[in-house]
Write a structure and sequence with these properties.
The protein has helices at 7-16, 79-91, 99-108, 112-120, 122-131, and strands at residues 22-27, 40-46, 52-56, 70-73. It has 135 residues and is an alpha+beta fold. It folds into 2 domains: 7-73, Roll (SH3 type barrels), CATH 2.30.30; 79-130, no CATH class. Strand 2 and strand 3 form a beta hairpin. Helix 3 runs antiparallel to helix 4 and helix 4 packs across helix 5 (122-131).
């Protein structure tokens, strides 16, 4: 991790990862961490060397180091997709955990946003069904 962050990159990183932003871990270089790809947390700060400090949902507070670790912001579930999920559920035609059947119903009901969402991020769809979490 010999990467030194430029002032412009640091400012861009601070803009992208403002405190309160939900993030997902893509990769972590620390071999001793319990964090794994897919773990999520909330940004608490970005320091002067570009480390994004995160309060991870599993209780860890390990920061994502600039040039060594990879995270991405988690975008909120679009309201359209949320409404379409609820509309499919209201039909009573399938178990909402049957992702393939929900996908097919989304196509039949002309819900392209939901079909795309399920295809692109099945994990986020499943998280919404299990927890109601929209981030």
């Amino acid at each position: 991790m010999n990467d030194i962050i430029s002032k412009a990159s640091l400012e861009a990183r601070k803009e992208r990862y403002k405190p309160g932003t939900r993030v997902e871990l893509i990769s972590m270089s620390d071999p001793y961490t319990d964090l794994k790809p897919g773990d999520r947390g909330e940004v608490t700060a970005v320091d002067s060397v570009g480390t994004v400090h995160v309060a991870w949902d599993n209780g860890s507070t390990l920061g994502a180091a600039y040039g060594a670790d990879e995270i991405k912001p988690v975008m909120p579930l679009p309201e359209t997709v949320r409404e379409q999920i609820l509309a499919v559920r209201a039909t009573g035609k399938t178990n909402m955990f049957d992702v393939k059947a929900v996908f097919e119903l989304a196509v039949q009901m002309d819900f392209p946003e939901l079909a795309d969402f399920i295809f692109m991020d099945t994990k986020a769809y499943s998280r919404f069904i299990l927890t109601g979490e929209t981030l």
